[in-house]
Write a structure and sequence with these properties.
By secondary structure, this protein is α+β, with helices and mostly antiparallel strands. It has seven helices and seven strands; from the N terminus they run βααβββαβαββααα.
Length: 236
């Protein structure tokens, strides 16, 4: 494992949840406003960490020296949930050492979320080869702050990205099936078979706000095809 002679890296012990929660809390507070304020009390953080260290799904690694805990990384099989370094030891190689450990124990790649406003963290991950995949408006996180999904594709990037695509395609197939079923249902009560051009434009505009990378023109073609095929399926 990477070391500078005094830095030590090891798996976290189950009884270290309070220490990890304390480091997390002071690092979040020191990171404002690049990170939005944390949403939970110290007691809630302690309970959260205790649960994660004992659930069998998370693995935590800590960095320490003779002075105590310097940072930690918390991972699942496919996600880097946390990587935090004590404010007093940032820019000293601790984060890099922890990230190297995560890459070593998750060689097939992993994803993580970073707040869009946390420019320093995003630059850190970019220097280490992580790729920004997508952005959100923050409606899916409790802070309601825009965030960015990053990925380290591991030793076989093609297989890693194809796995992510497979996950999206599985969800897309389910959504298309639901869309077709709803089209069939509305056709049964609607009566008229004429398409509503104004409504389709509204759908495209809403989708374009969520997926600006595709743009309204591309989304218009996609929506047109989905509605066309859903209507066709509803006839049979």
């Amino acid at each position: 494992m990477p070391t500078d002679g005094s830095l030590r890296l090891r798996p976290a012990e189950p009884d270290e949840s309070d220490a990890l929660a304390a480091l997390y809390g002071r690092t979040r507070r020191a990171s404002e406003p690049a990170m939005p304020p944390a949403m939970h009390t110290a007691e809630e953080d302690q309970a959260w960490f205790a649960a994660r260290l004992g659930d069998g799904e998370h693995e935590a690694w800590v960095a320490e020296d003779d002075g105590g805990l310097l940072g930690y990384a918390l991972v699942t099989a496919t996600w880097l949930d946390h990587l935090f370094v004590d404010p007093s030891r940032q820019s000293a190689g601790v984060g890099t050492a922890l990230l190297d450990v995560v890459m070593g124990v998750r060689p097939d790649g992993f994803c993580l979320w970073v707040f869009e406003s946390n420019v320093r963290a995003r630059a850190f991950y970019a220097r280490h080869g992580l790729v920004e995949l997508e952005r959100t408006d923050g409606s899916g996180n409790e802070e309601r702050a825009p965030d960015v999904k990053l990925a380290w594709p591991g030793r076989d990037p093609v297989a890693f990205y194809r796995g992510l695509i497979d996950d999206v395609d599985a969800g897309l197939a389910e959504l298309l099936a639901r869309r077709a079923a709803l089209t069939r249902a509305v056709q049964q009560v609607k009566g008229a078979t004429d398409r509503d051009a104004a409504r389709e434009r509204e759908i495209v505009e809403r989708m374009a706000r969520v997926a600006p990378e595709l743009g309204a023109d591309r989304l218009a073609r996609i929506v047109h095809a989905i509605i066309t095929e859903s209507l066709d399926a509803a006839r049979y």
